[in-house]
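Review form for a predicted model. The reviewer records the input and the model, then writes brief findings.
Reviewer: anonymous (R2)
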Amino acid sequence: MKILFFDVRDEEEKILKQSCEYNNRNCGNGCECLLFPQRLDSQTLITEEMSNADIISCFTFSRVGADVLKNFPKLKLIALRSVGFNHIDIEYCKQNGISVVNSKGYGNVTVAEYAFALIFDVRRKVSRAYMNMKNEHLEKDSYQGYELFSSTIGLIGTGAIGAEAARIAHGIGMNILAYDIYPNEELTKKYGVKYVALDELLRNSDIVSLHSPLTKDNFHLINDEKLRLMKRSSIIVNTARGELIDTKALYDALAENRIFGAGLDVLEAENMLTQPQKQWDFDYLDSETVRQTLLNERLLKLRNVVVTPHVAFNTYEAQERILNITMNNINSFFNGEIKNSVF
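Model under review:
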């Protein structure tokens, strides 16, 4: 068995090597693990040594389409070190007998907590006050914000992460609205969550927080029409997937002060910001990517937005859980069992 790990950060390397050594001792056919810090995408040079991989493991920074997957004719499993899987060509995998498993449950608390970090920051203008203090340019009259206690939060998606967000919101003393095609009655009983239609949630929420996976049906779920339903004093927070929000529509709403602010850990075409060398790789770019990159650059210049580089998942505890779940998924595959399949 040959396993390729992409998107490997320095702090992951030691743990993965130890796990691979364990697998090598316990895999009857012998295992070979190759670790790569770079992402896996259409620009990755696939060597002959790599092409006969049985298993690939990657994070959300990789972009694994059919053009990439066709380079791995022996591939049997993609073990994601993430919950989201929209960066993988699932249809190709289904058609070619490739199982795809994720690290479900690793970051429920971690991501929900980060959403609230952004909520506190945007509602109370923490980053702006800090940067002004650091630059000795105080604007004391511009730091007025809003309390969270007794305000209304609207949760779009109440799966595992959304449920944790509801728990935190309840502890703060917030009113909780939610939109989900599969309502969770337990959340209503425990935290008083009230399920409503999306438009009603947007009209009545002081904070809108996205916790939905990206599907073909909810691309640009939040568009210009939806943003115009929100209060002028409201904010929107996204720690899920950038493509859930139409970036141009959000930019216009923020630039025109139609909403109070936004906290974004994810963006459309975010690789262009988190991997800046790609901006000069003309083989990698297309017109839509260029458009989104320019929009993101303009978004970053606004005073009422806080943007972070897709790091809501990144705690010591979550990292350990990710690697444990990933290696358990791989070991289960060795034993003929598919755990945490995404389809």
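Findings: The mean pLDDT is 93.
Further findings: The longest strand covers residues 152-156.
Recommendation: see findings above.
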